[in-house]
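Input sequence (337 aa), recorded before submission:
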Amino acid sequence: MEVKQSGQGIFGLGHTVEESQLVLLPVPWDVTTSYKPGTANGPEAILNASHQLDLYHPHFFDQLQHGIAMKDVSKEWHEKNKKMRALSEKVIAVSDQGLELSEENIKDTATVNKECDALRNWVKTEALAMIEQEKIVGVVGGDHSTSLGLIEALSETVDAFGILQFDAHMDLRDAYQGFTHSHASIMKNALKNKQVTRLVQVGTRDYSYEESETSRTSKGRIKTFTDVELKDGLFEDKSWQSLSRKIVNALPDMVYISFDIDGLNPSLCPNTGTPVPGGLTFEQAMYVIALVQESGRKIIGFDVVEVSPAQTNDWDANVGARVLFHLAGYCLKSLKL
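Predicted structure, token format:
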């Protein structure tokens, strides 16, 4: 089978949204990014970088015929992001200095929270519309908060599922710097949906004591495989296969994959919003995803977030595009399409 690359759509494919089984929703948003912005430009950078990928992959090449398309980046939300980022940066600057917020800062925080909630609702509405057409949906961020709307949409259409989270951070804060829909709160917000029966975190290595306690006291709902635990296993001669099987075995039958690019070693994503030393290699992460599919579990949706392109090269976007490519392929294959 030949899969033609027209040079127009994601991965150079010529599929339209209407004819595609898998639809990607770009979300240009990095309003609450606490260290450095730039991930709002991630969707467009990933799209551009994806055009130079060769499409053959021995595990899922045939699945591409079912169609993969990315919707246009919303100019409206991109402009709103600029306005809200200007407000949030003032609040973040005061918060970083440990100073008390002024009345203006408090007002700005409320405005940002309102718009973040509006974005969540927009993503949810867009996702539900595509799910109703029996399409699989993936979010291309943007910061990590952008995927909450899709998780909520799936919670309305799937009785029970787990989240497999690749991330340097736990993202289990109630709020961060006053922002209730912060990138640092995405998984705490996702767990408010009772349909999310299990959260499996992989590669975490930068988190607070409170977040660790949230995981420890979750009565098994959260299972965290820290970077220290995984690396200790490798140093003690355990195979990556055995460690990966423990990760996959912790998941239920239905799986949503949330891929924060900073879960990888920062040599693969040096410009991401909050890079942390350590992390997974590209091959280690893709091996885990492959095992999810091989295990017979269904990948019902996914996101790729926190990709921040540099002005001087496309390295982060190139890596992000390849992560997206693997997620799309294994997702379609897991559904036996």
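Checked by second reader. The longest helix spans residues 103-131.
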